[in-house]
Design brief:
The structure holds 2 protein chains of 2 kinds. By secondary structure, chain A is α+β, with helices and mostly antiparallel strands. Chain A has helices at about 1-35, 40-50, 75-80, 110-120, 195-205, 265-270, 270-275; strands spanning about 65, 70-75, 85-90, 95-105, 130-135, 140-150, 150-155, 160-165, 170-175, 180-185, 190, 210-225, 230-240, 250-255, 260. In chain B, the strands form 3 sheets. In chain B, strands 11, 12, 13, 14, 15, 16, 17, 18, 19, 20, 21, 23, 24 and 25 form a 14-stranded mixed beta sheet that branches. Chain B has a 9-stranded antiparallel beta sheet with strand order 3-7-6-5-4-1-2-8-9, sandwiched between helices. Classes of the chains: A alpha+beta, B alpha+beta.
């Protein structure tokens, strides 16, 4: 059956061609999908970043919700510092500086655990329950707590407790600043995602090649001051570290608009006196 | 035996036909000629472009209790409409039917049914706009016009769509879904304002039944320079040909023929005229789509900017910035952006160069506004004809702050659409 054999050979060849064509067809469809979807362009840029020797961990694509918030600088710490025991508090420029008469020993490996417990005591630190430990800002000799605000925390020297430890893992002194009456100025709105924030920072050319993104955090940072009032906006705080270096640089991205916030911007742009 | 005799020729024929069709499809599809490089195009500009479902969103939520009493859910810590919208992503197998037409009784029976949340659009939109909110689940439904969505909080298989103009009620049947998240929204931190939904001059509106407490605001504005818009809007192929004319407080940029951009430095407004051919489409969906394209092209900050109204006669679509769920009005009644299609070769976009950006702490207490009924009565006593009044809204009046050009004050007030213009209650009362 010669004819039958030829038929079989043809059949096999055509099936092979079909499979090949179908593969091409599918690839085409994917390519079209690529062009429309925005998520993919994000991952392309992240890939580009990795090509530039920028080390990034896994990034979240989730949009969070956050507020514009305000708080007031006040003298409440000075008014209540009389109740602090075993220390000599001083109130200097809206900051409470206090030295402990007898140093307090904290857990060597986990100082946070000991301090968290101490913070509930209002004769040790005022309003201690309103602060939360910041792993990223703390070092072995300097433990930093940020003031809590609307489900997140404030990254500002105006709302912080910094504990100074000596080499024997003992707290010797601390500095505290406090904002009163923290409230939202408007209903919550959606922020940009971690990925987007990093991409924008990259596109502003703020991440040099050969660096590592050490950590990113969504917190509140100061946008402007009006008299005693402080206005904070949700900010993606991105810590980058050049390779072969331990120095960390903090970059800030406005989590609502995606704009970069320069350090110098803080008071300048919106200081009421300079606006007139 | 007989069967296998025909099997091979048959299979061969099918294989040949399939390969031919696939070849034709591949050759005629232009995507085939695209190189892979094009996919990694430069990402969009830094300005945040808000999706259609954000701009064409309902702006008000009203809850009807089990006893029939109604209240507006006012934003405080959360945006109430956004929270309700989040619960609307899971509708399966939607089927629509017209429940009634031209019957006011049926319309209000559905709208004011007990245990329900009604979402109100600021003006008529088409089903496509709603489809964007429900994650494309309504894409197969006919493109009806709608004004309101009624979500029963105790019936998980039905929702209703209302069209004001001829009092049409549509019922959408969906597969059973959980109502837990919808009921959770009602427990969130928000302010409520007693209200009732009824007719004014034959048009359904939301009456506020008691005096309203509203918070005045102070905002820092985002001020864009002229250059920003010139480079965005007039940046055509030959940018050398842009000319500038200055007249008093007007600056006019234009390319030789088809584009013109006028800035008014006094009232901080700009007008962009585009005399290139456009689609000149007339139906609601197409106009909204074209308008949205123009809006995104502008590059104006779109935070809290929402669709406000569409005027059929002159094809003008307006957008306003919302605060706490209430729209902002300037002294001339203008909002944030308006786009207008005049004819197939003229489009005009009016927009504000200053836009509210950051709310600032204000120590002013709440301001009390009269109820709708009281407000209307006072207007009537003042000599205004209620007949000429078409719409009523609570809103905020834009006022320059005396201390700084970068600050504005937003003061709560009633707004009425009187003789085809948005006028504030205060200005009407002060007129005579």
């Amino acid at each position: 059956m010669n004819f039958r054999r030829i038929e079989i050979i043809f059949l096999v060849t055509f099936i092979a061609i079909d499979i090949f064509l179908f593969g091409m067809f599918k690839k085409n469809m994917d390519m079209q999908a690529d062009n429309v979807s925005q998520g993919d362009s994000d991952s392309v840029i992240v890939k580009e970043m990795r090509n530039d020797q920028i080390k990034v961990g896994n990034l979240s694509k989730k949009n969070e919700n956050a507020y514009y918030i305000s708080g007031e600088q006040s003298d409440v710490l000075r008014n209540q510092m009389g109740q602090l025991a075993n220390q000599t508090p001083q109130f200097v420029g809206h900051e409470l500086e206090s030295e402990l008469k007898t140093p307090i020993t904290v857990d060597k490996n986990n100082p946070r655990k000991s301090i968290d417990k101490l913070l509930t005591d209002s004769t040790f630190v005022l309003f201690g329950d309103q602060y939360v430990y910041s792993k990223n800002l703390s070092t072995s000799r300097n433990i930093v707590y940020n003031q809590k605000a609307m489900g997140s925390s404030i990254y500002s020297s105006e709302a912080q407790i910094r504990f100074t430890l000596n080499s024997n893992h003992q707290i010797v002194s601390y500095t505290q600043s406090y904002l009163q009456g923290i409230k939202s100025l408007r209903e919550s709105s959606e922020t940009i995602s971690e990925t987007r924030a990093l991409i924008w920072l990259y596109q502003y050319n703020e991440i040099p090649n050969n660096t590592t993104v050490a950590w990113t955090n969504l917190g509140y940072t100061k946008l402007l001051s009006i008299d005693g009032d402080r206005v904070f906006i949700p900010t993606w705080i991105i810590a980058i570290r050049p390779q072969n270096s331990t120095q960390i640089q903090l970059k800030r991205i406005n989590a609502f608009t995606g704009g970069i916030i320069k350090e110098t911007d803080e008071n300048l742009k919106n200081n009421p006196s300079s606006m007139n | 035996m007989r069967f296998s005799k025909y099997l091979i020729p048959l299979a061969l024929t099918i294989a040949v036909v399939v390969s031919l069709t696939l070849s034709v499809v591949l050759w005629t599809n232009p995507a085939n000629y695209r190189t892979n490089k094009q996919t990694s195009q430069t990402p969009q500009t830094q300005q945040m472009i808000k999706p259609k479902r954000y701009v064409y969103s309902p702006v008000q939520a009203i809850h009807t209790n089990a006893d029939g009493s109604q209240q507006i859910l006012v934003n405080k810590l959360v945006n109430t409409v956004t929270e309700v919208k989040k619960t609307m992503h899971n509708y399966k197998d939607p089927k629509i039917k017209t429940l009634s037409k031209n019957s006011r009784t049926d319309y209000f029976r559905i709208a004011n049914q007990t245990d329900s949340i009604m979402l109100n659009y600021s003006d008529t939109v088409s089903m496509r706009a709603l489809n964007a909110i429900v994650k494309n689940r309504f894409r197969k439904l006919p493109n009806y016009k709608i004004n309101r969505i009624v979500l029963p909080t105790n019936n998980s298989t039905k929702l209703y769509l209302l069209y004001d103009k001829n009092f049409t009620v549509y019922e959408v049947d969906v597969k059973k879904h959980s109502l837990k998240s919808l009921n959770k929204v009602l427990k969130m931190d928000m302010r409520t304002q007693p209200a009732s939904f009824k007719l004014l001059n034959n048009k359904p509106i939301v009456y506020v039944t008691t005096a309203v407490q509203m918070q005045p605001y102070k905002y820092l504005i985002d001020r864009q320079s002229d250059d920003y818009y010139v480079s965005r809007l007039l940046n055509t192929q030959d940018s050398t040909s842009i000319n500038v004319k200055r007249r008093k407080n007007m600056t006019i940029y234009g390319d030789q023929s088809s584009l013109q951009l006028t800035f008014n430095s006094k009232n901080r407004m700009a007008e962009f005229s585009d005399f290139r051919p456009n689609h000149n489409r007339r139906n609601l969906t197409a106009t909204i789509n074209d308008s949205y394209k123009n809006l995104t092209k502008l590059g104006l900050p779109m935070d809290n900017v929402r669709f406000f109204s569409y005027d059929d006669n002159n094809r003008t679509v307006t957008y306003r910035t919302y605060v706490e769920g209430f729209p902002i009005f300037r002294t001339n009644g203008f909002g944030t952006v308006s786009t207008r299609t005049m004819n197939s070769s003229a489009q005009r976009i009016l927009f504000s160069l200053d836009n509210p950006e950051v709310p600032l702490p204000s120590n002013k207490g709440y301001v009390s506004l009269p109820s709708t009924e009281t407000m209307l009565k006072r207007l009537e006593n003042h000599g205004y004809k209620l007949k000429d009044l078409q719409k009523v809204r609570l809103g905020y009046t834009w006022k320059k702050d005396s201390t700084s050009p970068l600050l504005i004050d937003l003061n709560p007030d009633w707004y009425v659409y009187y003789n085809n213009k948005w006028r504030s209650y205060t200005s009407l009362m002060n007129q005579y």
